[in-house]
Amino acid sequence: MLEIRPNCECCDKDLPSDSTEAMVCTYECTFCVICVEDILSNVCPNCGGGFMLRPVRPKTARREGVSILHQPPSTNRIHTPYSIEELKAFGETHKLIKPENR
Fold first, then answer.
1. The pTM is what?
2. Residue 40 and residue 44: Cα distance in Å, rounded?
3. Which helix (H) or strand (E) holds 4?
4. Taking the CA of residue 80 as centre, how many other CA atoms within 13 Å lie in the half-sphere pointing to its CB?
């Protein structure tokens, strides 16, 4: 189950559980759409994979016990250890390789 991390690891923008601007890689590294496009070039700086829009966890339990009330999002804010320059350089190096081929 996804943690639903609360922020962009790059710019620290709030990305609440219902955000349609949150992007995740296969390891759930979480960044906002703007950072993924403008800084990361759709290359995860941690695993080298690509990003997809993060799904929104339902607010209403349409099945018993399955909603944001039952599985709340994480409150643990994550921050990348890399500088903006390092993030851009890594993305530039790998952006021409399709995510499925990285």
1. 0.92
2. 7
3. none
4. 25
For residues 66 and 83, what is the distance between their CA atoms, to the nearest angstrom?
38
Q: Are 4 and 17 in contact (CB under 8 A)?
A: yes
First to last CA, the chain: 24
Summarize pLDDT for 38-74 with one digit per residue, the tens.
Answer: 999 999 999 999 999 999 999 999 999 999 999 999 9
User: What whole-number distance in Å separates Cα of residue 91 and Cα of residue 40?
Assistant: 5
Inter-CA distances, 35 with 10, 61, 62, 70, Å = 7, 32, 33, 30
Query: Which residue reads 């995860």 in tokens?
Result: 44
Lookup: tokens for 67: 């909603």
The pLDDT-based confidence of 5 (bands split at 50, 70, 90) is very high
Residue ranges of domains in the chain = 22-96
Residue 28 in contact with residue 51, Cβ under 8 Å?
no
